[in-house]
Specification:
Shape: globular
Strand content: 5-15%
EC number: 3.2.1.-
Strand order of the largest sheet: 1-2-3-4-5-6-8-7
Keywords: Carbohydrate metabolism, Cellulose degradation, Disulfide bond, Glycosidase, Hydrolase, Polysaccharide degradation, Signal
Family: Belongs to the glycosyl hydrolase family 6.
Protein name: Glucanase
Radius of gyration: 19 Å
Largest sheet: 8 strands, mixed
Organism: Streptomyces canarius
Protein backbone atom coordinates (compact mmCIF):
# COMPACT_ATOMS: atom_id res chain seq x y z
CA UNK A 1 0.00 0.00 0.00
CA UNK A 2 2.87 2.39 0.86
CA UNK A 3 4.24 2.12 -2.66
CA UNK A 4 0.82 2.47 -4.24
CA UNK A 5 0.22 5.72 -2.34
CA UNK A 6 3.60 7.03 -3.50
CA UNK A 7 2.67 6.19 -7.08
CA UNK A 8 -0.61 8.09 -6.81
CA UNK A 9 0.98 11.14 -5.21
CA UNK A 10 3.85 11.13 -7.72
CA UNK A 11 1.43 10.90 -10.62
CA UNK A 12 -0.74 13.74 -9.32
CA UNK A 13 2.21 16.08 -8.79
CA UNK A 14 3.89 15.08 -12.06
CA UNK A 15 0.87 15.53 -14.31
CA UNK A 16 0.92 19.33 -14.81
CA UNK A 17 4.65 19.51 -15.52
CA UNK A 18 4.62 16.35 -17.63
CA UNK A 19 2.28 17.99 -20.10
CA UNK A 20 4.91 20.63 -20.79
CA UNK A 21 7.80 18.24 -21.32
CA UNK A 22 9.06 16.64 -24.50
CA UNK A 23 7.31 13.42 -25.68
CA UNK A 24 10.18 11.33 -24.25
CA UNK A 25 9.45 12.46 -20.68
CA UNK A 26 7.66 10.03 -18.41
CA UNK A 27 5.03 10.99 -15.86
CA UNK A 28 6.74 9.21 -12.97
CA UNK A 29 10.23 8.73 -11.58
CA UNK A 30 10.72 4.99 -10.94
CA UNK A 31 13.26 5.70 -8.20
CA UNK A 32 10.57 7.47 -6.16
CA UNK A 33 8.03 4.71 -6.81
CA UNK A 34 10.20 2.12 -5.07
CA UNK A 35 12.24 1.70 -1.88
CA UNK A 36 15.72 0.92 -3.21
CA UNK A 37 17.13 -1.37 -5.88
CA UNK A 38 16.22 -5.00 -6.47
CA UNK A 39 18.67 -7.81 -5.69
CA UNK A 40 18.34 -10.50 -8.35
CA UNK A 41 17.54 -13.71 -6.43
CA UNK A 42 18.72 -15.82 -9.36
CA UNK A 43 21.95 -14.10 -10.41
CA UNK A 44 24.89 -16.23 -11.45
CA UNK A 45 26.67 -15.27 -8.23
CA UNK A 46 23.64 -16.26 -6.13
CA UNK A 47 23.35 -19.61 -7.92
CA UNK A 48 27.05 -20.37 -7.47
CA UNK A 49 26.96 -19.58 -3.74
CA UNK A 50 23.87 -21.75 -3.25
CA UNK A 51 25.50 -24.65 -5.11
CA UNK A 52 28.86 -24.36 -3.32
CA UNK A 53 28.18 -23.56 0.35
CA UNK A 54 31.33 -25.36 1.52
CA UNK A 55 33.67 -23.51 -0.82
CA UNK A 56 36.08 -21.24 1.04
CA UNK A 57 35.27 -18.40 -1.35
CA UNK A 58 31.50 -18.62 -0.93
CA UNK A 59 31.16 -16.38 2.12
CA UNK A 60 33.05 -13.47 0.59
CA UNK A 61 31.28 -13.77 -2.77
CA UNK A 62 27.91 -13.92 -1.03
CA UNK A 63 28.60 -10.88 1.13
CA UNK A 64 30.35 -8.66 -1.40
CA UNK A 65 28.75 -9.60 -4.73
CA UNK A 66 25.68 -11.86 -4.60
CA UNK A 67 23.67 -9.58 -2.31
CA UNK A 68 24.44 -6.35 -4.14
CA UNK A 69 21.66 -5.04 -6.44
CA UNK A 70 22.68 -5.55 -10.05
CA UNK A 71 21.16 -5.87 -13.47
CA UNK A 72 19.72 -8.96 -15.08
CA UNK A 73 20.56 -9.41 -18.76
CA UNK A 74 17.92 -10.60 -21.21
CA UNK A 75 18.53 -12.14 -24.62
CA UNK A 76 17.74 -15.22 -26.69
CA UNK A 77 18.42 -17.39 -23.61
CA UNK A 78 15.51 -15.78 -21.76
CA UNK A 79 12.73 -17.74 -23.44
CA UNK A 80 9.47 -15.93 -24.17
CA UNK A 81 10.75 -12.45 -23.54
CA UNK A 82 7.55 -10.74 -22.45
CA UNK A 83 6.96 -13.46 -19.90
CA UNK A 84 10.57 -13.18 -18.67
CA UNK A 85 10.64 -9.40 -18.26
CA UNK A 86 7.13 -9.42 -16.80
CA UNK A 87 8.08 -12.00 -14.18
CA UNK A 88 11.24 -10.13 -13.23
CA UNK A 89 9.65 -6.70 -13.06
CA UNK A 90 6.70 -8.21 -11.24
CA UNK A 91 8.85 -9.87 -8.59
CA UNK A 92 10.68 -6.58 -7.99
CA UNK A 93 7.38 -4.71 -7.86
CA UNK A 94 6.03 -7.11 -5.25
CA UNK A 95 9.11 -6.35 -3.15
CA UNK A 96 8.74 -2.58 -3.66
CA UNK A 97 12.20 -2.54 -5.30
CA UNK A 98 13.50 -1.08 -8.54
CA UNK A 99 14.82 -3.64 -11.05
CA UNK A 100 17.55 -2.96 -13.60
CA UNK A 101 17.17 -4.91 -16.85
CA UNK A 102 19.55 -5.09 -19.81
CA UNK A 103 18.19 -5.62 -23.32
CA UNK A 104 20.92 -7.50 -25.18
CA UNK A 105 19.58 -9.08 -28.34
CA UNK A 106 20.00 -6.60 -31.17
CA UNK A 107 20.47 -8.01 -34.67
CA UNK A 108 24.20 -8.39 -35.47
CA UNK A 109 25.09 -7.98 -31.80
CA UNK A 110 28.81 -7.45 -31.14
CA UNK A 111 29.31 -7.56 -34.89
CA UNK A 112 32.87 -6.23 -34.77
CA UNK A 113 34.01 -7.40 -31.32
CA UNK A 114 32.84 -10.98 -31.71
CA UNK A 115 33.08 -12.33 -28.15
CA UNK A 116 29.32 -11.89 -27.59
CA UNK A 117 28.17 -12.24 -31.18
CA UNK A 118 24.58 -13.26 -31.78
CA UNK A 119 21.29 -11.51 -31.24
CA UNK A 120 17.99 -11.57 -33.06
CA UNK A 121 17.77 -13.26 -36.44
CA UNK A 122 16.73 -10.10 -38.31
CA UNK A 123 15.73 -6.48 -37.73
CA UNK A 124 12.07 -7.47 -37.82
CA UNK A 125 12.69 -10.26 -35.31
CA UNK A 126 14.36 -7.73 -33.04
CA UNK A 127 11.45 -5.31 -33.41
CA UNK A 128 9.08 -8.03 -32.27
CA UNK A 129 11.38 -9.07 -29.41
CA UNK A 130 11.89 -5.58 -28.01
CA UNK A 131 8.17 -4.80 -28.26
CA UNK A 132 7.45 -7.85 -26.12
CA UNK A 133 10.28 -6.88 -23.75
CA UNK A 134 8.67 -3.50 -23.12
CA UNK A 135 5.19 -4.97 -22.96
CA UNK A 136 6.25 -7.40 -20.26
CA UNK A 137 7.39 -4.57 -18.01
CA UNK A 138 4.23 -2.57 -18.75
CA UNK A 139 3.45 0.02 -16.07
CA UNK A 140 5.79 -1.29 -13.40
CA UNK A 141 8.77 0.87 -12.37
CA UNK A 142 12.03 -0.23 -13.98
CA UNK A 143 15.39 0.85 -15.39
CA UNK A 144 16.49 -0.56 -18.75
CA UNK A 145 19.98 -0.43 -20.26
CA UNK A 146 19.42 -0.62 -24.00
CA UNK A 147 21.82 -2.79 -25.99
CA UNK A 148 25.33 -2.43 -24.53
CA UNK A 149 28.07 -1.77 -27.12
CA UNK A 150 25.54 -1.14 -29.89
CA UNK A 151 26.71 2.43 -30.60
CA UNK A 152 30.40 1.80 -29.99
CA UNK A 153 30.61 -1.27 -32.22
CA UNK A 154 30.70 0.58 -35.57
CA UNK A 155 34.32 -0.03 -36.58
CA UNK A 156 33.70 -2.71 -39.22
CA UNK A 157 30.11 -1.85 -40.20
CA UNK A 158 28.90 -0.34 -43.45
CA UNK A 159 26.77 2.81 -43.43
CA UNK A 160 23.76 0.72 -44.37
CA UNK A 161 24.32 -1.53 -41.34
CA UNK A 162 24.76 1.51 -39.11
CA UNK A 163 21.52 3.03 -40.39
CA UNK A 164 19.78 -0.28 -39.81
CA UNK A 165 21.04 -0.48 -36.23
CA UNK A 166 20.06 3.09 -35.43
CA UNK A 167 16.56 2.45 -36.76
CA UNK A 168 16.24 -0.60 -34.49
CA UNK A 169 17.23 1.46 -31.46
CA UNK A 170 14.88 4.30 -32.35
CA UNK A 171 12.02 1.84 -32.66
CA UNK A 172 12.96 0.27 -29.32
CA UNK A 173 12.67 3.63 -27.60
CA UNK A 174 9.26 4.14 -29.14
CA UNK A 175 8.11 0.80 -27.76
CA UNK A 176 9.17 1.69 -24.22
CA UNK A 177 7.56 5.11 -24.45
CA UNK A 178 4.31 3.53 -25.58
CA UNK A 179 4.18 0.41 -23.41
CA UNK A 180 6.37 1.03 -20.34
CA UNK A 181 5.68 4.58 -19.13
CA UNK A 182 7.38 4.13 -15.74
CA UNK A 183 10.64 2.81 -17.18
CA UNK A 184 13.76 4.91 -17.54
CA UNK A 185 15.66 3.76 -20.65
CA UNK A 186 19.36 4.50 -21.03
CA UNK A 187 20.98 4.11 -24.44
CA UNK A 188 24.46 2.66 -24.14
CA UNK A 189 27.27 5.09 -24.96
CA UNK A 190 30.32 2.88 -24.54
CA UNK A 191 33.19 4.07 -22.33
CA UNK A 192 35.89 6.76 -22.23
CA UNK A 193 38.40 4.59 -24.06
CA UNK A 194 36.33 3.70 -27.10
CA UNK A 195 34.75 6.57 -29.03
CA UNK A 196 35.36 10.32 -28.79
CA UNK A 197 32.63 12.35 -27.03
CA UNK A 198 31.70 14.27 -30.18
CA UNK A 199 31.33 11.07 -32.18
CA UNK A 200 29.30 9.37 -29.47
CA UNK A 201 27.01 12.38 -29.10
CA UNK A 202 26.25 12.22 -32.81
CA UNK A 203 25.59 8.48 -32.72
CA UNK A 204 23.31 8.81 -29.69
CA UNK A 205 21.34 11.62 -31.25
CA UNK A 206 20.94 9.87 -34.60
CA UNK A 207 19.72 6.71 -32.84
CA UNK A 208 17.01 8.63 -30.99
CA UNK A 209 18.51 9.74 -27.67
CA UNK A 210 16.04 12.61 -27.40
CA UNK A 211 13.33 9.98 -26.78
CA UNK A 212 15.36 8.15 -24.09
CA UNK A 213 15.73 9.11 -20.46
CA UNK A 214 19.52 9.10 -20.71
CA UNK A 215 22.63 7.14 -21.60
CA UNK A 216 24.82 4.53 -19.89
CA UNK A 217 28.60 4.35 -19.59
CA UNK A 218 31.26 1.76 -18.78
CA UNK A 219 29.01 -1.29 -19.16
CA UNK A 220 31.24 -4.35 -18.69
CA UNK A 221 34.33 -2.14 -18.51
CA UNK A 222 36.73 -0.84 -15.91
CA UNK A 223 37.22 2.90 -16.20
CA UNK A 224 36.93 4.85 -12.96
CA UNK A 225 33.77 6.69 -12.01
CA UNK A 226 35.64 10.00 -12.30
CA UNK A 227 36.78 9.17 -15.85
CA UNK A 228 33.25 8.21 -16.83
CA UNK A 229 31.76 11.31 -15.27
CA UNK A 230 34.16 13.49 -17.23
CA UNK A 231 33.31 11.59 -20.41
CA UNK A 232 29.57 11.83 -19.78
CA UNK A 233 29.85 15.56 -19.19
CA UNK A 234 31.83 15.91 -22.43
CA UNK A 235 29.15 14.00 -24.35
CA UNK A 236 26.53 16.31 -22.86
CA UNK A 237 28.54 19.37 -23.86
CA UNK A 238 28.52 18.10 -27.45
CA UNK A 239 24.81 17.32 -27.29
CA UNK A 240 24.09 20.80 -25.99
CA UNK A 241 26.23 22.56 -28.57
CA UNK A 242 25.00 20.55 -31.53
CA UNK A 243 21.42 19.64 -30.71
CA UNK A 244 20.30 21.87 -27.86
CA UNK A 245 19.71 19.31 -25.12
CA UNK A 246 21.50 17.17 -22.54
CA UNK A 247 20.64 13.89 -20.83
CA UNK A 248 21.42 12.26 -17.47
CA UNK A 249 23.77 9.29 -17.48
CA UNK A 250 24.53 6.24 -15.35
CA UNK A 251 27.87 4.49 -14.79
CA UNK A 252 28.53 0.77 -14.40
CA UNK A 253 30.72 0.62 -11.29
CA UNK A 254 30.62 -3.14 -10.83
CA UNK A 255 34.29 -3.69 -11.77
CA UNK A 256 35.93 -0.27 -11.74
CA UNK A 257 37.38 -0.16 -8.23
CA UNK A 258 40.96 -0.28 -9.55
CA UNK A 259 40.26 1.48 -12.81
CA UNK A 260 41.30 0.19 -16.23
CA UNK A 261 44.70 -1.19 -17.25
CA UNK A 262 43.80 -0.66 -20.90
CA UNK A 263 42.40 -4.15 -21.44
CA UNK A 264 38.66 -4.80 -21.74
CA UNK A 265 38.51 -8.60 -21.87
CA UNK A 266 38.99 -10.27 -18.46
CA UNK A 267 42.01 -8.23 -17.32
CA UNK A 268 43.75 -9.29 -14.13
CA UNK A 269 43.92 -7.15 -11.00
CA UNK A 270 40.53 -5.45 -11.28
CA UNK A 271 38.27 -4.75 -8.33
CA UNK A 272 34.57 -4.32 -7.57
CA UNK A 273 33.45 -0.69 -7.33
CA UNK A 274 30.85 1.42 -5.54
CA UNK A 275 27.63 -0.55 -4.97
CA UNK A 276 24.47 0.51 -6.77
CA UNK A 277 23.10 3.85 -5.58
CA UNK A 278 21.97 7.24 -6.81
CA UNK A 279 24.40 10.10 -7.20
CA UNK A 280 28.17 10.20 -7.52
CA UNK A 281 28.30 12.80 -10.30
CA UNK A 282 26.12 10.59 -12.48
CA UNK A 283 22.38 10.14 -12.05
CA UNK A 284 23.00 6.63 -10.74
CA UNK A 285 25.92 4.30 -10.13
CA UNK A 286 24.81 0.79 -11.10
CA UNK A 287 26.18 -2.72 -11.14
CA UNK A 288 25.29 -3.68 -14.70
CA UNK A 289 27.84 -6.43 -15.35
CA UNK A 290 28.04 -9.10 -12.64
CA UNK A 291 31.57 -9.23 -11.15
CA UNK A 292 33.01 -12.65 -11.91
CA UNK A 293 31.11 -13.15 -15.15
CA UNK A 294 33.50 -13.68 -18.04
CA UNK A 295 33.92 -11.23 -20.90
CA UNK A 296 34.82 -14.12 -23.19
CA UNK A 297 37.64 -16.55 -23.95
CA UNK A 298 40.47 -14.20 -23.02
CA UNK A 299 42.67 -12.87 -20.21
CA UNK A 300 42.11 -14.45 -16.80
CA UNK A 301 38.96 -16.01 -18.27
CA UNK A 302 40.81 -18.07 -20.88
CA UNK A 303 38.75 -21.11 -21.80
CA UNK A 304 35.46 -19.56 -20.66
CA UNK A 305 32.50 -18.21 -22.59
CA UNK A 306 31.01 -14.73 -22.27
CA UNK A 307 28.69 -14.57 -19.27
CA UNK A 308 30.06 -17.67 -17.54
CA UNK A 309 30.52 -17.14 -13.79
CA UNK A 310 34.12 -17.67 -12.70
CA UNK A 311 34.32 -17.88 -8.89
CA UNK A 312 38.07 -17.38 -8.68
CA UNK A 313 37.85 -14.22 -10.78
CA UNK A 314 34.97 -12.99 -8.60
CA UNK A 315 36.87 -13.75 -5.40
CA UNK A 316 40.02 -11.94 -6.54
CA UNK A 317 37.92 -8.99 -7.71
CA UNK A 318 36.63 -8.49 -4.15
CA UNK A 319 40.19 -7.88 -2.96
CA UNK A 320 41.65 -6.35 -6.11
CA UNK A 321 44.32 -8.87 -7.08
Amino acid sequence: MRRRLRILVAALFALPSALALAPSAHAADPTTMTSGFYVDPDSSAKRWVAANPGDGRASAINASIANTPMARWFGSWSGTIGTATGAYAGAADNSDKLPVLVAYNIYNRDYCGGHSAGGAASPSAYANWIAQFAGGIAGRPAVVILEPDSLGDYGCMTQAQIDEREAMLTNALAQFSRQAPNTWVYMDAGNPGWVAPATMAQRLHEAGLRQAHGFSLNVSNYFTTAENTAFGNAVNSELSARYGYTKPFVVDTSRNGNGSNGQWCNPAGRRIGTPTRTGGGAEMLLWIKTPGESDGNCGVGAGSTAGQFLPEVAYKMIYGY
